[in-house]
Amino acid sequence: MNKTVLLLACPLLSALSASVWAEDRKIDQGLLDNYQPEQVAEHVYVIHGPTAYPNKQNQGFMNNPAFIVTDKEVTVIDPGSSSAIGRAVLAQIRKITDKPVNKVFTTHVHGDHWLGNQAFQEENPEVKFYAHPNMIEEAKNGAAAEWVSTMDSMTENATAGTEAVIPTEALTDGDSFDLGGLTLKVHLITGKAHTDTDVMFEIPEEKVLFTGDTINNKRIVRMDDGSFAGGVKAADYAMGLDVDKVVPGHGHSGGKNMLAYYRDYLSKVYNSVKKMREDMEPFEMKPKIEAELTDYKGWPGYQEELGKHISLSALEAEQEDF
């Protein structure tokens, strides 16, 4: 184990970690200072990120990096949106354990969830990165470069220096990984939900489900690459799993009722648009649909995304006719 990792592994020296990394690699100090891992199950930790859009102040950090610690290894899910954020996630892991990080899983193609991969490859060149086969293909075909550029632009170059480490290990539905006393079960979403690259991960022994952006809690997210009907179907599928703890893509972890709550948002928007589209234009629908969404009005992203969600639902409903 190298000097940097040894320092990070020792809680007494954790205060030195940022300066050690700063000698050669940028680290997100805000994540280290303000966002601590929360233990949501015996072996599962989540760093619940802020819910604002990526900006210079949050350094692009907005998702929920998670990690599973066993006697054998550490497994990471969605390490964040830049190399600096990934290094901070790794530093938080090293405060808890010095076990090797051998596997990193990605829930979907959006770069705010996986561009932190670089940090884990820096520490362990043998680490394996897993994702939906569509995610790997899309990333190779330009999505990776587009997300690196997007994060740089949105954060005013706060994420500069990030290199896209694209997953190489394609997942299939029903895959099962032995993590050393725990099982990671893979649920590939058929068709589009939040995207056409979505994967959910389940730890059956601890009844924990990681949903990626298929499910969010107190955060309305973009649906430009998704399907409202598909999102409802994916939420219904998740509700049929034997889990009682849910780690969403954005927002705080919670109970299984979160699945129904987010599904209801997608369903209300989509079904309302389908009912109204013969009589009015999408922009005319908004006040009527808002009246059915009073529980969601305070969620970050609501004001920015609802109008677009109505327009996207109208397009999806039209496509259903063919």
TrEMBL record:
Signal peptide, first to last residue: 1-22
UniProt KW Signal keyword: yes
SMART domains linked to this entry: Lactamase_B
Domain of life: Bacteria
Entry's family note: Belongs to the metallo-beta-lactamase superfamily. Class-B beta-lactamase family.
PANTHER family: ACYL-COENZYME A THIOESTERASE MBLAC2, METALLO-BETA-LACTAMASE DOMAIN-CONTAINING
Name assigned to this protein: MBL fold metallo-hydrolase
